[in-house]
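User: Here's a structure from my thesis project, written as structure tokens. My advisor, Dr. K., wants to see whether a designed sequence matches the one we expressed. Can you design one independently, without my sequence as a hint?
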């Protein structure tokens, strides 16, 4: 287990999460991050079909076109809530391709995502960083091995808030939930730089009209 230190809020937090160093909260304006962001490759029209139609036959083909490899990150949004089948299909396709040690970065998970447990156990998913609800929350709370690979859990705006082992399924009842910000930075809720996101959509993927 990672060493625990007391942060500026007086709480014990780990200094390492999923093998990566974690910076404890130091107080307002006490920590200034350094480094550079990674940017995506420059694309041109020549990378796509001449008729502009990027529709392809399957999610599997989308993953191949995106260059999915071991250890990459797949991020999904929770707008379909407990009706989401897309994330399940994506990881099923990744399993068929033999890809391993992926990081799943969902803005939230729901009971419909209980199939991810099998992917964690067979090594397709290395760990999850996101809101954990339903069977996934129970799994990470009750299984010590799973708990080490299921965090950091985050709030919907992408703020790391707790570890799965201690409070994966619910927020502490001893304090009210935080008041949401009126405005959020443009990058709020986005996965870290370098995360994978497909530029393709499949024929079975629904699209929304802008009208």
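Assistant: Designed independently from the structure alone:
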């Amino acid at each position: 287990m990672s060493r625990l230190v007391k942060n500026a809020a007086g709480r014990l937090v780990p200094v390492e999460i999923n093998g990566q160093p974690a910076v404890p909260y130091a107080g307002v304006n006490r920590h200034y991050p350094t480094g550079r962001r990674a940017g995506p490759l420059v694309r041109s029209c020549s990378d796509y079909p001449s008729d502009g139609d990027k529709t392809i036959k399957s999610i599997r083909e989308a993953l191949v076109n995106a260059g999915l490899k071991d250890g990459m990150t797949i991020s999904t949004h929770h707008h379909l809530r407990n009706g989401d089948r897309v994330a399940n299909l994506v990881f099923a396709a990744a399993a068929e391709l033999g890809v391993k040690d992926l990081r799943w970065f969902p803005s939230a998970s729901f009971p419909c995502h209980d199939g991810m447990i099998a992917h964690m156990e067979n090594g397709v998913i290395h760990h999850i960083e996101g809101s954990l609800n339903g069977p996934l929350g129970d799994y990470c709370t009750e299984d010590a091995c799973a708990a080490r690979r299921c965090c950091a859990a985050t709030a919907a705006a992408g703020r790391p808030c707790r570890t799965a082992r201690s409070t994966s399924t619910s927020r502490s009842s001893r304090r009210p939930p935080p008041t949401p910000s009126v405005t959020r930075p443009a990058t709020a809720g986005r996965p870290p730089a370098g995360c994978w996101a497909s530029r393709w959509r499949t024929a079975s993927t629904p699209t929304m009209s802008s009208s």
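When you compare it with your expressed construct, this may help: Residues 157-211 have pLDDT under 50 and may be disordered.
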